[in-house]
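Sample intake sheet
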Amino acid sequence: MQTLQQQYKTHMVPQLLKQKGIMNLMAVPKLVKIVVNCGIGDALTDKKVVEKVSAQLGAITGQKPQVMRAKRAISTFKLRAGDAVGLRVTLRGDRMYIFLTKLISIALPRVRDFRGISRNGFDGMGNYTLGLKEQTIFPELEYSLVDKVRGFEINFVTTAGNNKDGEKLLELLGMPFTKAVQDGRQE
């Protein structure tokens, strides 16, 4: 069985070359990286939250998260410069494709009443952001690790220059977008 990365190289690249009429192989849109972000505002009151969420994100992505710190102090939020406010994991190469396969084939179908993901998360340059409301949809996460249901966002960074090309690339990779709406009804 071919991995998603092998399928991209053998089947999807020739298909994109043909559909877009691209002559140069290097001009084909590709997925560069996947960035997983998680905000941890309650780390200001409980310092162990950083360790717990870091262990959860590490189990989900297979990579140790980077702690994001506040750049400046905000007194109304009782926030000091240097306090931990979030975690980030940047996936590239094999780990990126493994995570994408796991997200598409295992995690997203486990979302309750799942009908596909919205097409509204594109930024104009072909990159896509997907927000998830809970981390428990990933099967490798043990329930003993989960202290609180937390959401996070997943950013898909592509080399596509526009939303249409980025959407086509993610569709070929298997992203389950909702059906397009035309004339007030779904196709």
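Comment: The chain has a mean pLDDT of 83. The chain has four helices and seven strands.
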